[in-house]
Amino acid sequence: MRLNRMVRILGVVMVVALLVAAFGCGGAPPAPSGSTAPGGGSPAPAPVKIRLTAGIDPVYAGWYVADKQGIFKKNGLEATLQLFAVGTEGMNAIVSGQADVAGTSPTAPLVAIDKGADSRARSSG
After folding, report:
1. Is this prediction's pTM over 0.70?
2. What is the pLDDT of the chain when averaged over all its residues?
3. Are 77 and 48 in contact (CB under 8 A)?
4. What is the pLDDT at residue 125?
5. Is residue 59's pLDDT more than 70?
6. Which residues lie closer than 8 Å to 53 by C-beta, 6 or more apart?
7. Distance of alpha carbon 108 from its chain centroid, rounded?
8. Using an 8 Å Cβ cutoff, are 82 and 47 in contact?
């Protein structure tokens, strides 16, 4: 029971760290697509496409809120959320090239790498 709670807390920390890294590192958000840069310069760059895997666990709520409230779009990201029942499915999507970012348990990427997957594991801590 205690381990399960720790895993959930770690998941929340990872989601928060991802959101801070994705949205908290830049200056002003990019201008909306098709508009011009301040001062009448060239058009703003096209949004960056990113495919995220999300589970059915509440720790992914931040990703859904960011999507529904347009936070990804406001920050120059065209995010696509893919729902998976378990973290290993999300990791499999990463390995097969069907996703760019997976929120998984700490062991899912390690197992994939151990099986020979060409992948990099990143952690918030």
Report:
1. no
2. 73
3. yes
4. 45
5. yes
6. 81, 82, 83, 84, 89, 90, 93, 94, 99, 101, 102, 103, 104
7. 16
8. no
